[in-house]
Design brief:
- The protein is largely without helices or strands and about 120 residues long.
- It contains no helices and no strands.
- The relative contact order is 0.39.
């Protein structure tokens, strides 16, 4: 005769418990900066000569155009600065996601059956 009983075998199984959804979105922000810009303008000045027949020398930033008693048209190029905006993409931080495994003790219980054999003597 074979006597049998159940034994409780406890183990674990891995199953999906949830998901994490990551959403990246763009926020637009207006930044304002003030920068100095320069431009050239033409101004005509009439200055008296210091003494008769003396021609004044051109000072810094003054351009002498033409010679005495010479007719013609002259062109002067004027320059100005304009602000420009360039966008540069630069990394500012690194984002990482880490999955952490947490181990906890959990108590489980279950019912098991076993066979009991008794012998009775008869006379």
């Amino acid at each position: 005769m074979t006597r049998s009983e159940e034994q409780l075998r406890v183990g674990t199984e891995t199953r999906e418990s949830g998901t994490v959804r990551i959403h990246k979105y763009i926020v637009t922000e207006t930044l304002t900066q003030t920068i100095p810009v320069r431009r050239e303008e033409i101004r005509i000045e009439e200055l008296p000569l210091e003494s008769a027949g003396e021609v004044t020398a051109a000072g810094p930033g003054v351009e002498r155009i033409g010679t005495p008693f010479e007719e013609g048209e002259y062109e002067i190029i004027l320059y100005e600065e304009r602000p420009i905006i360039e966008l540069e993409t630069v990394p500012v931080e690194r984002i990482t996601l880490t999955k952490e495994t947490i181990t906890e003790a959990e108590t489980v219980s279950g019912e098991v059956r076993k066979e009991v054999i008794e012998a009775t003597e008869s006379r």
